[in-house]
Design brief:
alpha+beta, four-stranded mixed β-sheet, 4 strands
Length: 71
């Protein structure tokens, strides 16, 4: 399974995502986070952005992002 680009529905920040299972999500940031209102563009990595998380969940729900091991 390979990483797939996903854009945040709120700010448009694009990341690469791979879902190995329902609880496991790998995210690779491909650029700056300055457009993200939750990360603030200061380079500090926090738990994550809830809006990006919702966008990833929507991609899974709508079948555009596959879960490798859907247990």
């Amino acid at each position: 399974m390979s990483m797939r680009p996903v854009s945040c529905g709120a700010c448009g920040t694009e990341v690469l995502v791979e879902k190995r299972s329902r609880p496991h999500t790998s995210i690779q940031w491909t650029g700056p986070t300055d457009r993200c209102p939750e990360l603030g563009g200061d380079g500090v990595r926090i738990e994550g952005c809830s809006r990006l998380r919702a966008s990833i969940q929507r991609e899974v729900r709508e079948g555009r992002l596959k879960v490798a091991h859907d247990d």
